[in-house]
Amino acid sequence: MGSFSFFLSFLCVFFVTSYAQLTENFYDQTCPRLPNIVRREVKRAIETDIRAGAKLIRFHFHDCFVQGCDGSVLLEDPPGFETELNGLGNLGIQGIEIIDAIKAAVEIECPGVVSCADILAQASKDSVDVQGGPSWRVLYGRRDSRTANKTGADNLPSPFENLDPLVKKFADVGLNETDLVALSGAHTFGRSRCVFFSGRLSNFSGSGQPDPTLDPTYRQELLSACTSQDTRVNFDPTTPDKFDKNYFTNLRANKGLLQSDQVLHSTQGAKTVEIVRLMALKQETFFRQFRLSMIKMGNIKPLTGSQGEIRRNCRRVNDLGSETGHDVM
């Protein structure tokens, strides 16, 4: 089953990549040092903030799930639109200043050439492999949107959801159960505020009891850690700052932090249970699928060609009355 799912994922990657016309060599002539610049800035950010990598990959995920991978999540004041940053799914999202720093470094080298959407894709890859995870060749050619979609951001996958709505939200953007499990594996690093899981500790779904799928010893650890709803707790209690397969090992031990994590393994009869088992057994199985799913996610409805623009400032659309970013192909 696992091998068949991987094969299907590969076919989907090939199809979507061909359709979107994103390529590895998009900036070879116009910004050849792009990967080096972004990696340098990502490493610098992680050295000063161990959560930086998790912040960056979350931005890429939340960008792609709302009107495609177009940098719309970064806009603070799109004319005539309400920002996605105010959407329910983005409450408390952090790290935009890291993206600002990366963009500034890229603009010094290649002004007006590289989109913010492509920077998010490259920074996410670097965030993973700098912290011990897999690497892959990033595909480029995305352009930046001049619009945002707060309604879409209100309906991002939620930490409070059961499996069926999660599967549907992933399917709505062309991702399957294997992609859902693999991409959820990004919770092998980073932190969550207690507000996003405290309901599991004592009054799950209004029952007056803790979530029965939560390990009792782990529950006590979380109760002790959560001195306030804003306290941040490691997603992975074993290797919190390393990108590895322990996320899946934790799920099998009923130590998934969020409800949306644990349901991947605790939903009886679900396809995801076997996928979790396979990824927990062998790290390379997880890494291989994570690469494929990240590439596949990065190809969700990108703007290409003459669509959109190349933003000079990731938080603002370009002023069409002045010089704007230009095409690179």
Automatic annotation (TrEMBL):
Annotated ranges, domain Plant heme peroxidase family profile? 21-318
Chemical reaction(s) catalysed: 2 a phenolic donor + H2O2 = 2 a phenolic radical donor + 2 H2O
Cite a single GO MF annotation.
heme binding
Q: What is its EC number?
A: 1.11.1.7
- Write out the residues that bind substrate: 157
- List the residue(s) that the UniProt entry marks as the site Transition state stabilizer: 58
- Its predominant location is secreted
Q: Which family does it belong to?
A: Belongs to the peroxidase family. Classical plant (class III) peroxidase subfamily. Belongs to the peroxidase family. Ascorbate peroxidase subfamily.
Record's keyword terms, sorted:
Calcium, Disulfide bond, Glycoprotein, Heme, Hydrogen peroxide, Iron, Metal-binding, Oxidoreductase, Peroxidase, Secreted, Signal
Q: What does this protein do?
A: Removal of H(2)O(2), oxidation of toxic reductants, biosynthesis and degradation of lignin, suberization, auxin catabolism, response to environmental stresses such as wounding, pathogen attack and oxidative stress. These functions might be dependent on each isozyme/isoform in each plant tissue.
Q: What's the protein here called?
A: Peroxidase
Has the keyword RNA-binding been applied to this entry? no
Is Phosphoprotein there in the keyword field? no
What cofactors does this protein use?
Ca(2+); heme b
As given in the record, the signal peptide range reads 1-20
All disulfide bonds of the chain are 31-110, 64-69, 116-314, 194-226
Q: Where in the cell is it found?
A: Secreted
Q: Where on this chain does heme b bind?
A: 187
